[in-house]
Amino acid sequence: MGRLTVIGFGPGGYEDMTNRAVKAIQEAEIVVGYTTYVDLLRPIFPEKEYMATPMMQEVKRCEMAVELAEQHEKIAMVSSGDSGIYGMAGIVMEVAKKKQADIEMKVVPGITAASAAAAILGAPLMHDFSVISLSDLMTPLELIWKRIDCAGMSDMIVCLYNPKSKKRQTYVETAADILMKYRSADTPVGVVRHAGREEESSYLTTLGELKHMSLDMFCVVLIGNSTTYIMDGKMITPRGYERKYE
Amino acid sequence: MGRLTVIGFGPGGYEDMTNRAVKAIQEAEIVVGYTTYVDLLRPIFPEKEYMATPMMQEVKRCEMAVELAEQHEKIAMVSSGDSGIYGMAGIVMEVAKKKQADIEMKVVPGITAASAAAAILGAPLMHDFSVISLSDLMTPLELIWKRIDCAGMSDMIVCLYNPKSKKRQTYVETAADILMKYRSADTPVGVVRHAGREEESSYLTTLGELKHMSLDMFCVVLIGNSTTYIMDGKMITPRGYERKYE
Questions:
Q1: What percent of chain B has pLDDT over 90?
Q2: Dmax (CA) of chain B
Q3: What is the CA radius of gyration of chain B?
Q4: Residues in B 73-132 with any Cβ partner in A closer than 8 A
Q5: CA torsion sign, B60 to B66 to B71 to B74?
Q6: Residues of chain B contacting residue A108, judged by C-beta atoms under 8 Å apart
Q7: pLDDT value, residue B57
Q8: Quick check: A245 pLDDT over 60?
Q9: What is the ipTM of this complex?
Q10: What is the pLDDT of residues B190-205, one digit of tens each?
Q11: What is the pLDDT of residue B242?
Q12: Mean pLDDT (chain B, rounded)
């Protein structure tokens, strides 16, 4: 019986990987992953054997990983961020079950984009927040809007994953409009692109201006709650609503 | 000008720390933190100089860290989990501003409890989720209930931080009752205590049974959405609402 370890290696660089992730990658006989992720790992672990599949072939990649784990002792399946947050952990478990594969499975958590982006922006996630993906590939659009609306209604900080793609140019604008029913157009918003990678960039804007900003699928958008403010270029959500600690 | 690095070292063990966190701790002249966190680090980095303060003295601890950073080149302020999620990152920035301290500040993200717990339970966070703390020390209780209600209404997975303390025995029961307005009493719930530490334990239950379960402030509670299910002892939320990937 082999072991399949589903590893989230965080933003992309060696520095933000956990020791557990590094060890699991080093011990694996074969490292399986989406081409882009594998390309991030090659320079860090040049001695490993890799098997890469293109995007949109998630099920195929999981089947490949499960089959390899049936034949080998240690297989790693990698993704950036946390493989347990919008990641492959769930699909691979379902695929293994369907195939009745006799393998052991482990999930190694990683730094998710919300954490990586928050650290770059300052301290925006000091209070309750919602993580919502704007991809409607597998979620009905009306449910996405309802979630945005509910997060707005209850004044939660909102982390938007997959804010924009070629097919979804206007979604982030709609999300901002929904949130502006409940919070000011001046609400601070932080955008981080390629968090933690060499090409990392970030900027601060406001909810009202968000629709005019440059965004793509490599961005994560953090929208403050009603108490979030900017101090010396840092986005901060105070910990207490009554600020008892001052 | 000294540098103050606010470090989240994840669940507690060396294995789940990022390389960046390890390096920042190793480079620091003095490591400042809450006594419990410092005690977790001492066996891992026995050669370091530590300064520990008891709980509830957050502002004092931040003032101490800022003052040390004014006098030294590299100071680390540590906490478990992610210092950027319900952590000290925000307070320390506000304290530094108030003191007009001429120091550089960096945040090093860590694995937050939701990520650590999800990896142990299976793959519960494959879809949109809300992270909500049940501590009403600095949040009006009615706002907490509104957030739970909104997360329920929009079928988000819910991660409860600080689910129970001596003073807050019934809050988790109220939260479960609110969520049961929208999702079944059979909804899978995973509880992880001391995620990632030696004394780690976890169990699965349901939303209806949650009120009868053993919980304390060291637990994190993950409540599934309407599609979450249990498969071979693992808690899984399918990635797509229409399960297009099957």
A1: 86
A2: 59
A3: 19
A4: 82, 84-87, 89-91, 93-94, 97, 106-112, 115-116, 118-120, 122-132
A5: positive
A6: 119
A7: 81
A8: no
A9: 0.96
A10: 999 998 888 999 999 9
A11: 58
A12: 94
Residue A113: pLDDT band by 50, 70, 90 thresholds? very high
Checking if the pLDDT of B177 tops 70, the result is yes
Among residues A9, A81, A83, which one has the least CA distance to residue A43?
Answer: A9
What order of strands is seen across the sheet that includes strand B234-236? B122-123, B234-236, B229-231
Mean of per-residue pLDDT scores for chain A: 94
* The pLDDT of residue A118: 98
> Which residues are CB-neighbours of B100 under 8 A, at least 6 positions away?
none
Sequence letter at residue B13: G
Residue B138 has its nearest CB partner, among A122, A154, A240, at A240
The beta-carbon neighbor of A82 closest among B115, B149, B237 is: B115
Q: Nearest CA to B233 among A7, A104, A110?
A: A104
- Name the strands in the sheet holding B30-34, side by side, starting at the edge strand that comes first in the sequence: B49-53, B30-34, B74-79, B3-8, B104-108
Confidence grade of residue B97 (pLDDT, cut at 50, 70, 90)? very high
Q: What are phi and psi of A239, to 5 degrees?
A: -70, -40
| Percent of chain A whose predicted confidence (pLDDT) is above 90 | 86
Residue pair B190/B164 in contact by the 8 Å Cβ criterion: no
Six token digits for residue A245: 């600690």
* Adjacent-strand bridge partners of B234: B231
The residues in B 201-240 lying below 8 A from A, measured between CB atoms, are 231-232, 234, 236-240
**DSSP per-residue letters across B136-204:** -SSS-HHHHHHHHHHHHHTT-EEEEES---SS-SSHHHHHHHHHTTTS-TT-EEEEEESTTSTT-EEEE
B115 with A116: Cβ contact below 8 A: no
The 10 Å Cβ neighbour count of residue A141 is: 12
What distance in Å separates the CA atoms of residue B200 and residue B119, rounded to the nearest whole number?
13
pLDDT at B244: 46
Answer for the pair B226, B155: CB distance below 8 angstroms, yes or no: yes
Contact A87, B127 (CB under 8 A): no
